[in-house]
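queue> holo job accepted ((2S)-2-hydroxybutanedioic acid)
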Amino acid sequence: MFEELELLPPDPILGLMAAHRNDPNPDKIDLGVGVYKDEQGNTPVLRSVKRAEEIILSEENTKSYIAPTGHPEFNQGVQQLLLGVSHPAYKDNRIATIQSPGGCGALRLGADFALRCNPEATVWVSDPTWANHIPLLGSAGLKLAKYPYYDATTHQILFDQMVETLKQVKKGDLVLLHGCCHNPCGADLTEEQWQVVATMAEQQGFVPYIDIAYQGFGLGLDQDAYGVRLMAERLPEVIIASSCSKNFGIYRERVGALNIVGANQHSAEACASQAANIARGIYSMPPSHGAAAVGLVLNNEKLRADWNVELTEMRDRINALRTQLVEKLESNNAPQDFSFIARQRGMFSFLGVTPEQVQRLRKEYSVYMVDSSRISIAGINSGNIDYLAESVVAVL
Ligand code: LMR
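queue> job finished
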């Protein structure tokens, strides 16, 4: 039965980690996978998370299962983070949360949930979108369609074209939106643009499916949740897949949540029960440790304040690196304008070079980025930024 199967090539994003690790060049730079790195190139465990883990390990007295929907204090903390405590959907208990194995687990669960509501549903995704959205949503059985989003030549959002295309979206279909820090392009909708999409959803009856994996990495925790909060206020139904991988630096522990906003509390609870039932048929229930740590950080005043400081440090570092990279490219006489990088937000931007130039950067300079020229900004530091700028200019 297995003999016909072919060996697959490595994942286009995750495979870069191994390729970089195996490269003996001491000047090598990893701008591949979206994992935050500090000035020393490390991805440390956040102090606040470490402290929460210590408390959990010392106080934990059972390894019995947690609830199928996850840790209640984690779920509540996530809702507060996404909506804020004064949001009407939060106050009216119109949001239900199911802890999931990472943001990917939430996305997949959300796809299965949408199919249970509407077996004919199409999900419209931005062009471009995160490469893994396609298998995550498509394997569940959702039909996929694209809307234009970003022009890699002008480095602008194609908002008019996006709106024109979204006019075709039918009631009961989904539109996948990146809550903030668009992966891969770093270009986010403005508040006015979010309003336009919300009005379209109201009028056409489609459901926004928001993937928010980088809250706090763009402008700040509240600003980054603008779109999520707007949709949850204006619309009766919204699906939100959230991830704690990046903003809590807790990647390998797989901490995420599927959040479903319903028309009222009864509907939200029914949705959660359906989602938990779907999860039971896939992985049964979520793991405990990572979400317990995040739940503790969110519910403990001191740990939460400490986490906020750490998150701000990560965000400020990324935003500063964006500006520095633009300056370095300019001072190396780059024949192209890269100023758009400083205007974009989050972990990623497209450098905007050709696939051949990406290959040369990898082979000749040991600079690793995704084939699309997506770079993970946090891989830059003061020790490698000059070499990076010189290498990029050399291949242009
Ligand atoms: C990325 O886009 O690099 C991250 O979200 C990690 C991943 O799983 O691809």
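queue> The mean pLDDT is 97.
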